[in-house]
Design goal:
The complex is a heterodimer.
Chain A: E1 8-10, E2 13-15, E3 19-22, H1 29-39, E4 43-50, E5 71-74, H2 82-95, E6 100-103, H3 116-128, E7 132-137, H4 141-149, E8 156-157, H5 171-180, E9 186-188, H6 194-203, E10 207-210, H7 212-215, H8 220-240
Helix pairs in contact in A: 1-8, 2-3, 6-8
Chain B: E1 2-5, E2 8-11, H1 18-24, E3 32-36, E4 39-41, E5 56-64
Parallel strand pairs in B: 1-5
Antiparallel strand pairs in B: 1-2, 3-4, 3-5
Classes of the chains: A alpha/beta, B mainly beta.
């Protein structure tokens, strides 16, 4: 289910779904596969981690992902320096099938907010090396402008801290970003409910990326469907053009012909 | 000689290559990436890149994440 003639375009590649989902925090691979399928997402994030050399019995994530159906977006989760993030991206490109990367360079463990200085350093190098960089960043238009100017394929401002479920904490910042940035603006992090996702899309965002909101829900499969519908509804609502907000009432029924 | 693989010290033969390490741990070369001393080693060099004592090897794969 998608809106005709409304594809999401990132670095020249077209996608039908504006919902992107993560592959972490699920109860098991079976639940993960089902949730992703129900969500309709085409872009899914993955992390880059050491192979467990001592325990080879565990199944591998990619055993469960149909790589013909999904575009992998490797992340640099857990990186606190530009150097680590750059290394991780290079490894991801070597292991994987695309040069799309979700660039995260974190500032501290409690908030998982980005270290914007290190983020800019890493983005500069990665863009030069030909990566398609989608940076997770603060909801700051100055920062987004710098990321766009240096060649990032999108900007991904957070709605709220990763996994917090607080929703779009500062919709005004997101609006300012949307007015000033031409590359796709994708809200990444903090979404908790379907209405949060709809709000992001109604503001005019190109897409929404989420993981915990689905995987951590009491019924992840049902929530995946809710999120799919919310992103579509929010996008349709945005394109339909909402009514203005007014202080006073404006009757919907005619005044003529009222019985006396 | 001793090398470090994914953070753990390992005893290997002197002429050890990356291919040997991967075979030892039954790791398929598809969908992994290997770094030696923070430099990526391309898959085509797994059979030829000889490891040296003290080399730090990282073997990574994709796992679930947000």
């Amino acid at each position: 289910m998608s809106i005709p003639n409304d594809k999401l375009v990132i670095a020249g590649r077209e996608f039908n779904s504006r919902l992107m989902v993560g592959t972490g925090k699920y109860a098991d691979f079976h639940q993960m596969v089902k949730a992703i399928e129900v969500s309709g997402a085409e872009i899914i994030t993955v992390a880059v981690r050491r192979v467990n050399v001592s325990d080879r019995s565990k199944e591998s994530l990619l055993d469960h992902i149909d790589l013909k159906k999904y575009t992998l977006l490797p992340n640099t989760a857990g990186c606190y320096t530009a150097d680590d993030a750059i290394r991780t991206c290079r490894l991801a490109r070597e292991a994987g099938l695309s040069d799309f990367v979700k660039l995260e360079v974190l500032g501290d463990e409690k908030t998982l907010f980005p270290d914007n200085e290190e983020l800019l350093k890493a983005a500069k190098v990665l863009v030069k090396e030909g990566f398609t960089v989608l940076p997770y960043c603060s909801d700051d238009v100055i920062l987004c402008r710098k990321l766009e100017d240096m060649g990032c394929a999108a900007v991904m401002p957070l709605g709220a801290p990763i996994g917090s479920g607080l929703g779009i904490r500062n919709p005004y910042n997101i609006r300012i970003i949307l007015e000033n940035i031409k590359v796709p603006v994708i809200v990444d992090a903090g979404v908790g409910s379907a209405s949060d996702a709809a709000i992001a899309m109604e503001l005019g965002c190109a897409g929404v990326l989420m993981n915990t909101a689905i995987a951590g829900a009491q019924d992840p499969i049902a929530m995946a469907e809710a999120m799919k519908l919310a992103v579509i509804a929010g996008r349709l609502s945005y394109k339909a053009g909402r009514i203005p907000r007014k202080l006073y009432a404006n009757a919907s029924s005619p005044l003529d012909g009222i019985i006396g | 000689m001793q090398i470090v693989v994914n953070g753990d010290v390992l005893d290997v033969v002197d002429s050890c290559t990356i291919a040997v390490i991967l075979e030892k741990f039954e790791i398929g070369i598809e969908r992994v990436a290997v770094e030696v001393n923070q430099d990526i080693v391309p898959k085509v060099q797994y059979n030829t890149h000889q490891l040296s004592p003290g080399d730090k090897v990282e073997i990574v794969q994709f796992v679930g994440g947000g």
